[in-house]
Each structure stands twice: as structure tokens, then as C-alpha cells.
Write a structure and sequence with these properties.
It catalyses: an acyl phosphate + H2O = a carboxylate + phosphate + H(+). This protein is an alpha+beta fold and about 260 residues long. It is built from 5 helices and 9 strands, in the order βαββαββααββαββ. The chain folds into 3 domains: about 5-95, Alpha-Beta Plaits (2-Layer Sandwich), CATH 3.30.70.100; about 115-195, DHBP synthase; about 200-260, no CATH class. Helix content is about 20%, strand content about 20%. The structure holds zinc ion (2 copies). The site of one zinc ion (ZN) has 8 residues, from α3.
Length: about 260
């Protein structure tokens, strides 16, 4: 009876957007040889999976139990796929990520994920000379990077983030479209060629990239202090014992958190 084909429609709520959930579902479905699709709908994820008798069930179990680290799987609803669905699943059609839809806005509460610190893979890249994101401060992937800071609406797509203003370069676009790449559908995807860049404006000149970093470090070594605006926070930078001459924004943390080269 293993040849009996089953088709399931699976709806998953919780923190499942902006956490690499669609790429994870895509990888899992392909590993099980399923046909179907996954998409963001409003604030949750909907998938349809078709395959031999027990494959959809194993797929469901893995979606629940092996979700990406940043995901929090909430309610899982399983049902039949509407036979009038325009994305009906033909045997051998493969598994794809479909375009997001707005949904009915009456479903489960939408949960926006928090920003996440760089993952081990991104840290390795950012510290590797020759890597195309070497020392690039806006590095991210499906396992890390900005989320709540850049999201302007759901479903979670690049167009619904502040990164929508940055058009992907060819190399980034290839990563974004490659199911085998960990940046597959990483919505805030960026690199030095196509993403945001750091800048330093001095009275005599403006600098970018490494020159900006060096100029900022030189200024601090010379006793100056400065503010930097990043993904989520404004940081104050100085060398001890210099302290900020205010707090203009209420409580301000002055604990040293990082060192410039
Ligand atoms: Zn990462
Ligand atoms: Zn790029």
C-alpha cells in the first residue's frame, strides 16, 4: 500500500516567518521526495505536501520536531487540500516556494521574530579574508540577522522589509534563489556590493567601507566620541574614561560592549 498517494494541507502558526522556516520546509519535503509547495500567508506558513502513504505524516512530524532554532511552532492544523486550488499538486511536479499572500487577517496572532545575533557560519565568513562578506557589518542569513528591526509588514517578504530598497546583486540573487544555499529566501540578504554600507563624514571628507572604519577608530583614539546608527540601536563609542555628556534619551547603557580594531 506504500504507493497510495496522500495530499495534506498543513497550516503552521507561531514564530514561523523570518526564521528560515520556508527553506527548512523546502529541504525537508525534498528529502522525503514530496511534491507540493510552501508559502507565507499573512503571519503564518501554509504548505501542501503530496506523496506516498506515510511521507506526508513524516513530513509533518519533522516540521514540528526539527524546526529551525529561531522558530517557535505554535498551532498546527492538518486538512485536505482544496481540489479547486490553482496550485494543485501533480505527481512528480516537485516542491516549490510560492509567492506569499496576505490571507484573511482573521487567523492566529501574527508573531514577528526578534533580531538575531550573527550565527557561527556568518561569523566565520565575516572573519575570513577573501570572503565576499569579509568585515561586512550587515551580513546575515536565514539563521541570523535583523528581523523585527526591518520588518514593515507581513507576510515576511523582502518587499515588506526596509531591505526592499536594496536590489540584490547577481551573486546575492543566486544565493536567494538556490534551495541548497543557507541564504535561500533570506529576506534581509545583503553584501558590500548591493546592501547598506557604513559611512563616516568628517569635516574634511566623507569615507566609506574600511576607510570609514579606520577614520572612526582614529577619531576615538584621538579622544573623540561618536554615535553610530545600526540595524536596531544607536551606539555611543568612546575610549575610557570618556563618558557620554548626556543622557538625552532617558536611561542609557554605558557598559562597554565591543572594541574597534
Ligand atoms: Zn547567519
Ligand atoms: Zn549582493
Amino acid at each position: 500500500m506504500s504507493g497510495v498517494r496522500q495530499t495534506w494541507r498543513i497550516e503552521i502558526s507561531g514564530t514561523v516567518q523570518g526564521v528560515g522556516f520556508r527553506p527548512f520546509v523546502h529541504r525537508t519535503a525534498n528529502a522525503l521526495g514530496l511534491d507540493g509547495w510552501v508559502r507565507n500567508v499573512d503571519g503564518h506558513v501554509v504548505a501542501a505536501a503530496a506523496g506516498p502513504r506515510d511521507a506526508p505524516e513524516r513530513f509533518l512530524a519533522r516540521c514540528r520536531d526539527e524546526a529551525p532554532p529561531l522558530a517557535v511552532v505554535g498551532t498546527v492544523t492538518v486538512g485536505r487540500l482544496d481540489t479547486t486550488d490553482p496550485h494543485g499538486i501533480a505527481p512528480g511536479s516537485g516542491f516549490v516556494v510560492l509567492e506569499s499572500t496576505a490571507g484573511a487577517a482573521t487567523g492566529p496572532v501574527r508573531q514577528v521574530p526578534a533580531d538575531a545575533a550573527p550565527c557561527a557560519d556568518c561569523l566565520r565568513e565575516v572573519l575570513t579574508p577573501g570572503d565576499r562578506r569579509y568585515r561586512y557589518p550587515f551580513i546575515n542569513c536565514t539563521a541570523c540577522g535583523p528581523r523585527a528591526t526591518v520588518i514593515t509588514g507581513l507576510p515576511y517578504d523582502r518587499a515588506c522589509t526596509t531591505m526592499g530598497a536594496f536590489t540584490l546583486c547577481t551573486a546575492c540573487a543566486q544565493e536567494y534563489a538556490d534551495p541548497a544555499d543557507r541564504r535561500f529566501h533570506a529576506e534581509p540578504l545583503a553584501c558590500p556590493r548591493c546592501g547598506p554600507r557604513i559611512s563616516w563624514w568628517a569635516p574634511e571628507a566623507a569615507y566609506g567601507g574600511e576607510e570609514a572604519m579606520s577614520a572612526a577608530a582614529d577619531a576615538v583614539r584621538g579622544g573623540a566620541w561618536w554615535l553610530s546608527k545600526g540595524w536596531a540601536v544607536i551606539s555611543w563609542c568612546a575610549t575610557p574614561p570618556t563618558r557620554p555628556p548626556w543622557p538625552p534619551y532617558g536611561a542609557v547603557s554605558v557598559a562597554p560592549t565591543s572594541l574597534l580594531p
